Amino acid sequence: MTTHLLILNGPxxxxxxxxxxxxxxxxxxxxxxxSCQAYADVLGAKLDFRQSNYEGQLxxxxxxxxxxxxxxxxxxxxxSFHSIPLLDALKVFSGPIMETHISNxxxxxxxxRHSILSSVATGxxxxxxxxxxxxxxxxxxxxxxTIPNNLPEPIRIGPA
Length: 160
Ligand code: CA2
What we know:
Elements: E1 4-9, H1 21-24, H2 29-43, E2 46-51, H3 55-65, E3 71-75, H4 84-91, E4 97-101, E5 123-126, H5 131-144, H6 153-156
Parallel strand pairs: 1-2, 1-3, 3-4, 4-5
Helix pairs in contact: 2-5, 3-4
Ligand CA2 is lined by residues 12-13, 15-16, 19-20, 24, 75, 77-78, 80, 101-103, 105, 108, 112.
C-alpha cells in the first residue's frame, strides 16, 4: 500500500520568503511544497502539504490523520511553545511524528528555545533550513520501512 505522509505547517509560515529572510531564509512555502512533492515521488509516497494560521484547524487535521496517514511531519511554528491542544492531539497519533523547524530553535532567544511538542515527537529536526523537510520525509519513510528498494542501501538502512 502507498505510504501516506502529511506535512503540517503552523501560523505565519505562509509568510516564508517574504519577511525576516535573515532568520528563515528566502525560500517560500510554495517552493518547499514543490520540493516535498518531488521527494514524495522519489519515495513513492502520497503527500498532503498544508498550512494554517489557526490552532483548531491544525488539531482537526491531526485528528483526521489518525485514520488516513502513516506519518506526520509538523512545523508547528509559534504553537510549538505553548499549544496544549496540539500537544494532546499529536499524543493520540500512533505513527511517527517528525517535528521540523527551519531555524535552529536552540540557538534562538528564550521564547523560541523550548518546544513543548517535542515530548510527543518521534524525532526533531531543526536548523537545516527548508532541507529539513526532506530529511524529515526520509526519516519518516525509514521508520515506516517504506523507502523504495531502488534507493541506495545507506539511505534505506543506514549503518547496520
Ligand atoms: O524555524 C522554524 O521553522 C520555526 O518553527 C518558525 C516559527 C518560530 O516561531 C519557531 O521558533 C521556529 C516562526 C514562523 C513564522 O514564520 C515567519 C516567516 C516569515 C516571516 C515572519 C514569520
